[in-house]
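Task card 7
Instruction: Convert sequence to structure tokens.
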Amino acid sequence: MSDKMNNVRKQIDRIDLVIITALAERMSLMPDIAEYKKKNNISVFQEKREQEIMKRLKKIANDYNLNEGFVEEFFLSVFNEAKRIQHEIINNKVE
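Output:
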């Protein structure tokens, strides 16, 4: 395999690590969000907030020439995982 291909793959591996680290950091905030929602009797699913975030993310996607549909699908998965974690915390379930 060429040196160029190896270098590109190393860059991809580094970026994958950055993505995973950022996702872990984002999910580490879910206990705080869940406790606030539980304390204030707020639903885990906040449709308006999700729509606002998605609108902002799609604009950023466009600014970076990324496909909006791809970004939307990716972040819907992120949102779903965040809601799953919040539900577990609110319902006092531990994995």
